[in-house]
Amino acid sequence: MTEPVVASDIPRPAAAAPRTRWTALIALCAGFLMIVLDTTIVSVAQASIQQELDFSQAGLAWLVNGYLIAFGGLLLLAGRVGDLLGRKRVFLGGLWLFLLASLLCGLARSQETLIAARFVQGVGGAFASSVILGMIVALFPTARERGRAIAIYAFVGSAGASLGLVAGGLLVDALSWHWIFFVNLPIGLVTIAVAARVLERDEPLGLRAGADVPGALLIVAAQMLGIYAIVAAGEHGFGTARTLLLGPLALALLGLFLLRETRAAHPLMPLRLLRVPDLAAANLVQALAIAGMFGMQFMLALQLQLVLGLSPLQVGFAMVPIALAIGATSLGFTARLMARIGPKATALPGLLLIAAGLLWLQRAPADGSYWLDVFPALLPLGIGGGLLMPALSTLAMANAPTADAGLASGLANTTQQIGGAIGLAVLATASASRSDALRDGGASAAEALAGGIGLAFAISAALALVAGAVALPLLSGRPRVGRRRAATAAARGAASPRT
Question: Which residue ranges traverse the bilayer (predicted)?
């Protein structure tokens, strides 16, 4: 049997100088942070937007849903376009589109303009963020440096959501909701200027290597329909006709896409990628873990605001300990731990810590307090996230062929988005049903709400434990190094650590 081609078997361009590499990483993470912030910063401003533009509650939801559908629906395609046309070109093009859409959002004076601009923001965000992991892998060829770089990237992604709540509250209170979009312009322009200067131009495969237009249409339609079905399920329930029709249709389109890829002369997504060691398993574990963690952030914000009575800005500051714990762990500890015991052994304690934190939150009563019932859970949640996300990102990318790094990066981002969307829909539906049942049984409004949110935390903890159970047998825990280059890689210190 032919041994799979892995990243270490493919010649790389000459490595950039160390200082240039880290400057390039800063530029990539700055662009990523801007995009991540935008997924949560809008939630703080929704009341102000609704009042000024006279949104209905259903229309207001499309400020988030329109962005998510475009963003999640295009990540896989965008990652492959990066391989075909050049990742630097796609990253910069995505940032320019994101900034143009941000300007249009800030200037919007009608509901239609704002929703359309948010959709375009999602398109730009998908193209910019889909290739970042692939570019990091190319920038940092040695295992130790790559581990540190991915830890920084994972910290930005994990902590950005909490920082978005704080930034949104400050901007809305001090200026207006328009500035949650205008603030992207100076940040984005500086990021583009630095990235254009320090990112090396990669050699694209060319459109002939994967110009599969039917495949592209099928995967985009499948992902957008699937995410819309998940969003609709969260709003209207899983048993509605809309969900029961769109869900199977999305799966059918995905099946047609996979069938198309087996027959296309130049497939958009070569299915050999799914046979790369650890890649499929790491994405499955990531989807399960993110399903619990993303929904947890939403439910925690509800608990702080509706049960404990905190303002939106106070909610943002109350969640800062998670971001600080993620940063302290991922930036100062995780990379060294992965180098010593391997990414799989690093991820498993992270999942257990996340489950422990969620179970602590699950027990919070209606008359609870932040310092007793919430704060003690934030540290294990943050430490667990700081261990888990860099380890899973490393496993998802470590063995991906260089030629398919953009596609692997897009796949990792896609599983995060779809896992988060499914998790949020499931948790929101279960929480609402539990709250309704408690209210019908005579519980007060606060007790019913606390009980529903507690159930959501319990489900999140179960998802983290299931992710750990899946990781144990499926993940090998160490990136492969091609036999022909094992000795050379080891001599350079680039060989992957043993578990």
Answer: 22-47, 59-78, 90-109, 115-140, 152-171, 177-199, 211-233, 239-259, 280-301, 313-333, 345-362, 374-398, 410-432, 452-475
Terminus-to-terminus CA distance in the chain, angstroms? 26
H or E stretch including 15?
none
CB 382 within 8 A of CB 321: yes
**In terms of Cα–Cα distance, which of 335, 441, 492, 401 is closest to 5?**
401
- With bands split at pLDDT 50, 70 and 90, how would you rate the model's confidence at 477? low
Q: What is the DSSP letter of 200?
A: P
Residue 175: what pLDDT?
A: 84
Give the residue carrying structure tokens 């003690």. Answer: 376
Per-residue burial over 375-405, b if 16 or more Cβ lie within 10 Å, else e, is eebbbbbbbbbbbbbbbbbbbbbbbbbbbbb
Region 287-310 average pLDDT:
82
Three-class DSSP category at 498: coil
Is-contact 299 457, C-beta < 8 A? yes
**Contacts of range 189-195, beta carbons closer than 8 Å, 24 or more positions apart:** 189/99, 190/30, 191/27, 191/30, 191/31, 191/34, 191/95, 192/92, 192/95, 192/96, 192/99, 194/23, 194/26, 194/27, 194/30, 195/24, 195/27, 195/28, 195/31, 195/88, 195/91, 195/92, 195/95
User: Nearest to residue 374, comparing CAs of 384, 383, 363, 385?
Assistant: 363
Helix (H) or strand (E) holding 233: helix 213-236
**Mind giving me the DSSP string for 430-459?**
HHHHHHHHHHHTT--HHHHHHHHHHHHHHH
Q: Tens digit of pLDDT for each residue in 246-270?
A: 888 988 988 888 888 788 777 777 7
Tokens of residue 288, six digits: 């399960």
User: Is 150 in contact with 27 (CB distance < 8 Å)?
Assistant: no
Query: Are the C-beta atoms of residues 30 and 189 closer than 8 Å to each other?
Result: no
- Distance (Å, rounded) from C-alpha 248 to C-alpha 229? 9
Ordered alpha helix ranges (H), 330-444: 335-341, 343-362, 375-397, 405-440
Distance CA 81, CA 133 (A): 14
Q: What totals of helices (H) and strands (E) does the chain contain, helices first?
A: 19, 0
Instruction: Kindly state the DSSP code that residue 334 receives in the 8-state scheme.
Output: I
How many other CB atoms are found less than 10 A from the CB of residue 18?
A: 10
